[in-house]
Amino acid sequence: MNERINHSLIDKFLMQCDQALRTCVPGTNQASRKTPAEALKEEDLSYSDKKHIAGLMRINHTGEVCAQALYAGQAMTAKLEATKESMKHAAEEEVDHLAWCDERLAQLNSKPSVLNPFYYGLSFAMGAAAGLAGDRWSLGFIAETERQVAEHLQNHLQEIPERDKKTRAILQQMIVDEEGHGEAANAAGGKKLPEPIQETMSMMAKVMKKTTYHV
What we know:
Blueprint: H1 2-24, H2 47-77, H3 81-107, H4 116-133, H5 135-159, H6 165-187, H7 195-212
Helix pairs in contact: 1-2, 2-3, 2-4, 2-5, 2-7, 3-6, 4-5, 5-6
């Protein structure tokens, strides 16, 4: 009996390591949906525009890395099977975002942030802690995260030149998905987080944005 438990723990550990590697290593994620930018023409962008857009997409890519880690951490510690399945479904859709951002960065002759492993580990720990606090708090954490992500994607959309239809199409679909995940978490019984926690999450997001824009 003990041997089975040990194998189960090892399997879970290896699965988490595999998930982390697939999330943080560029080019390893395959989207289940085609990128919204596939049929759109690549416009002639200036060097400065490309550099700025790449910086914004690097932030968005890291945001998706964090989302994968949050969902993985919460799914590991969530108590209800329905909550675990909800986390798994949302994480699968977030893989599309990760792949789309990765592809767009390559098209802009840029790369994801080298800080992604650090942010993955931090987000995984936060997700696991939220899961331990209880499923309603965990769902509330997801709802607040998605609300803040959708908000910063809207801000990025304002900064992307109108002629860059490819990037704009990606961001617009990401916003739809993020808002949907947040609504689903609330509908599943998510509990609204206290304002101090919301503000702390916002401050951490600002640090992430500043550090990953350049690296």
